[in-house]
Each structure stands twice: as C-alpha cells, then as structure tokens.
Amino acid sequence: MGLLVDGQWQDKWYDTESSGGRFEREDAGFRNWVTVDGSAGPSGVGGFKAEPNRYHLYVSLACPWAHRTLIYRKLKGLENMISLSVVHPFMGENGWTFAAGEGVIADPLNHASNAYEIYIAAKPDYTGRVTVPILWDKKTNTIVSNESSEIIRMFNSDFDEVGAVAGDFLPTDLLTEIDEINDFVYSAINNGVYKAGFSTTQEAYEEAVTALFDALDTLEVRLSGKRYLVGNSITEADWRLFTTLVRFDAVYVGHFKCNLRRIVDYPNLWGYLRDLYQVPGIAETVNMVHIKQHYYTSHANINPTRIIPAGPVIDFNEPHDRARL
Ligand SMILES: N[C@@H](CCC(=O)N[C@@H](CS)C(=O)NCC(=O)O)C(=O)O
User: Fold this and answer.
1) Residue 54 maps to a domain
2) Ligand 1, closest atom to CA 26?
3) Closest residue by Cα to residue 79 from 57, 98, 64
4) Which one of 136, 162, 188 terminates a domain?
5) Residue-wise pLDDT tens for the chain (325 aa)?
6) Which residues are listed under the site Lowers pKa of active site Cys (predicted)?
C-alpha cells in the first residue's frame, strides 16, 4: 500500500507516529459533483452533467466505502448507464491493481495495471493516497470524485431525469437527522473499525474499540423500536451503516480486534443487517471472498502469515422479524 507524491508512486504504510499511534484518514482529493444541468455542486468545479454512458465507476468489492456506491448503482438502476471496473482484492506494494483474478473487471478506459495510473491520468502531479471508489468522466477524461459519501448523493437523484429508477434515500425533511446519525456512525463505526485495526499503540486501540462498542450498543437500543435508523423506510444512513456491519463478524472481529461482541450477538442489529441484506439486489453486491481476501492478505503488519480464516459461517438469508416494527 502506498501513495502518490507529485505523481510518483511510493510504497508506504500509514503514518501513525505523529498522532500517538492513531490512524487518521486523509480527505479525498477529487470533490466535483455530477449534477442535473452540469453546474458546480457543493464543492469543486462544474462541467459534469448527468448523462447516460458518460461515467465509469472503479471499485473494490472488499472496500466498505466503494460498496456504498455499488449499492446505489444497483438500487437506482444505473448499471446500464454507469460502467464498472473492479480491482483485485489484494492491495500490496503497488496499491490496488487490476491483476487477473476471480471477479476482477479490467480497466477498459485507461488500460491501467494499477489504480494509481488512473489518478495520474487525471492529474499528473497528484499527491495523496490512491483510494477507491473513483468516479471517472469518459467525456473529459478525468476523475469527478473519489469520495463515496458524495458519489452516493449524486447517484441518489441526479440521474433520475435520464432514466434512473425512482427512489429517494435522502428525503429533504430527514436530511438533518440523516447527517447527524451519519457523523456518529462514520466516526465511531465506519471509520471506528479502521481506527481500532490500524492503531499502533494500546491506548489508541482501546480508545477506538471503546467508542465503537458504545456506538453499537446505542444503535442496538435505537433499533429495538424502529425498523430503520431514520424515519419509516430505508435511507442513506442505513446503507452507510450496512457496509460496515456486513463485514464485521467476518473481518473486523478478528483482523481488526473489534471483538468485545459480534453483530450476531446483538439481536436487533443482527436482524436489521439481515433485513437490509435481503433487499432485492443487495446480496449481489456483497462478495465475502474479496472481503476476506483483501483484509487478511493486504495488511502484512497485522496478519504476517496472510492466512485467511475459514469461518465464521454466517447466514444472512435467515429470516428476520423486522417487518413487525
Ligand atoms: N473517503 C474515501 C475513503 C475511501 C478509502 O479509504 N478506500 C480504501 C479502501 S477500503 C482505500 O482505497 N485505501 C487505500 C489507501 O488508503 O491507500 C471514501 O469514502 O470514498
């Protein structure tokens, strides 16, 4: 794993020395928005109008952030208008690559062997980490955005007039509440598992793991009387929580040492996770082989033998009883 410095690839692990062993996630570098009319969005520059067959999405099936964008591409019926590439689950000295493998979809546009080449194609002197997801514009040959939280907001509504499936996961009247819960879930849970797993001091680990389980305990109570996090139907807040929960027992419990409790030990969170998993189309976006292979083989400092554990056996298709709520 590594990063680009002035367009040059350097193989470097995260620097936790200056932060007391704490993992600090870098902000995404490309922050433009696809909009209905091509005007600039909340950040970045304009020029990216929502048009069918204009955009390409690069993802890892292992990555919880990229997974959000795949879910929206599926649920909003964008598969026929936004093309897709999938990186190899192993992220080694060259970062994400398109090495041949089960489930890998090569890059038909930039013909990149490594994802960093896509960043260089967009910005030859790019400095920063090379992350997925990446939303690419085939018309101007550049990266629109590499920030999943913003890509899903584009997918949610901006393609509606050009043939996306109806459905709004961000109703205006719930926006404030969704933003609030997103912040809480991001810090303690989505990013919390990484903070626990990538910490390099006992203190940093304990801080993260305590906040993580406090947050899960809070949500367990919240979901005892409510089917979804906000309002009466599935919203963005649920999909953002889902991609971490679905990886939790298979990866974060063992590999990231988030092992005070498993999701299957929380009756409400476990039912909620199955409920979301069983939404039509969602199961196809979950690839447990890529997920386990990525985490257990890519972080040699955490799992030097690179052995992928056999279990746990989890049945996400077990009936849930959440419809009563
Ligand atoms: N803020 C980004 C974060 C994306 C991200 O960190 N992706 C991970 C994969 S799970 C990655 O590509 N990491 C490579 C690296 O940090 O070098 C987003 O949500 O889109």
Assistant:
1) yes
2) 1
3) 57
4) 162
5) 789 999 999 988 777 878 888 888 788 899 999 999 999 999 999 999 999 999 999 999 999 999 999 999 999 999 999 999 999 999 999 999 999 999 999 999 999 999 999 999 999 999 999 999 999 999 999 999 999 999 999 999 999 999 999 999 999 999 999 999 999 999 999 999 999 999 999 999 999 999 999 999 999 999 999 999 999 999 999 999 999 999 999 999 999 999 999 999 999 999 999 999 999 999 999 999 999 999 999 999 999 999 999 999 999 999 999 999 9
6) 252, 295
Give the nearest ligand 1 atom to 146 CA. 20
CA of 131 to the centre of ligand 1 (A): 4
Q: Are residues 217 and 111 in the same domain?
A: no
Does residue 93 sit in the same domain as residue 26? yes
Whose CA is closest to atom 12 on ligand 1? Answer: 131
CB-based contact 125:108 (threshold 8 Å): no
Residue nearest to atom 10 of ligand 1 (CA): 63
Is 96 marked within a binding site? Answer: yes
Which residue numbers are catalytic? 63, 194
At 75, which CATH number?
3.40.30.10
Split into its structural domains, the chain has a count of 2
Indicate which atom in ligand 1 lies nearest the CA of residue 131: 12
Q: According to the annotation, is 199 in a ligand binding site?
A: no
Q: Are 9 and 95 in contact (CB under 8 A)?
A: yes
The pTM score is 0.97
The Cα 77–Cα 199 span in angstroms is: 39
Expressed as residue numbers, the domain containing 219 is 172-279
